[in-house]
């Protein structure tokens, strides 16, 4: 090694390092409470390991004094000797807890990085630690520091016994943390799984006095205890049912509880809500990515000792244990839904009613869910929510679905046929019904698609002569509409106007504002798809040659009767009025209403003339 390459010691600006770690490592000042309570918990675990034969009452008490702007965290744990104060409180990155866990293998110890104590300086101007070790209970010392860069240690009068009190003199912007009601709310969530009781102020009831159903055998119904815990823990929505997470030794040690929330729909809101605890202490309050992306209606709480936290202990490293837990939780959701359907039919009906739209999409993501939901999940239709089986039965063995959003003539056709039509524009409806039709080997009629229209609107046995077809097109169709002679049910419906969905899409993506609304990649794909249509045909007007009204109209035209044009005008007005009633646009409604009056007057005059001729 040359002289220029000699190794040198890295210089460290301790003040800057402490400031960065204390202020920027954690996302919220509330983490300071978590870290200090965690340290108190580990102090108890240390005392149990090092002095197992001496009985004592383990507890943690957090007190706030808004007037003095202070918060104190007291424990009856192992405490610290003076050398340990210097070694562990005043040395960044050194933690006795980690060393003890490595030595004993005890998984109840939470700390990992030796950084948690620094969080105190993110909320406090001054930190004071008064402590007495269980090894030297007659000696007590006080550590005091402002900012964490410099500190002092002095002997003080002995405490009532071993343990530690950490007192924070809060910065003005964090003075609200001294409110004991706020402390109860925060600690109730942070500490709910800690085995050591945590008290606030002079309370006689610990904030974590909640029976944990997966940790203990409780008398009575396990499901009832799960629901009680879920109702106590859930933040935003009432749980509809709850089911356990159990260890899968080949993949994960996680245990806990998941529940179905009475929340919003996944199509508009992702309400996944999962809290993760590491050795009993809240690690991640929003670990939704551990849940399947389709499970927007699931909440829960789990604990694990295999997960690896980040340095801030506010998130999880995406390692093999994380991915194994993702798979295990997906299985737990599916198994829980199966259990609910089998054992709790009332809750299952509520879930289907509340989350039908979510479950349609979920069924497409997991074969097991599709098997469970295929015949139970409700599908939105023109006649309300129906199962796919009910749709199939009402459609004489076929499932009918509209691709458009407004209903319009298509829906009118189905109403006339008294067949419910599924809302194919709703979230996951169309792909779910396509898969259902494949599974049950039944037909699916997609109104608005070329194949669906061919099935509904059958070609006539013989084509209309070009002259008749031209006259009908001129009399009935508006600009952008193509007249298509056909035969369809019911005969009482003389014509149906069906929008061309590709033309609608083309118009939307060629709008001047499309570039601003639609991502460029999606826009290119959509324009490639619609390039095959020129967009001139915006709708097809299917004329029902099986309709008596149309038969009479053609008979009158072929006979050269003057009333044929009047009757055709009446049908055209009927088309415009029906389109307006369904929210579509097919001509001038005012002119159509006037056309009805004109046609009625003309027909009345013709009738009077006929009566006069006969007299």
Automatic annotation (TrEMBL):
Protein name in UniProt: ATP-binding protein
SUPFAM superfamilies given in the database record: ATPase domain of HSP90 chaperone/DNA topoisomerase II/histidine kinase (SSF55874), Ribosomal protein S5 domain 2-like (SSF54211)
TM region positions: none
Species name: Kitasatospora terrestris
GO MF annotation terms: ATP binding
Keywords for the protein's UniProt record, in alphabetical order: ATP-binding, Chaperone, Nucleotide-binding
Gene3D superfamilies: 3.30.230.80, Histidine kinase-like ATPase, C-terminal domain
Family: Belongs to the heat shock protein 90 family.
Keyword Nucleotide-binding among record annotations: yes
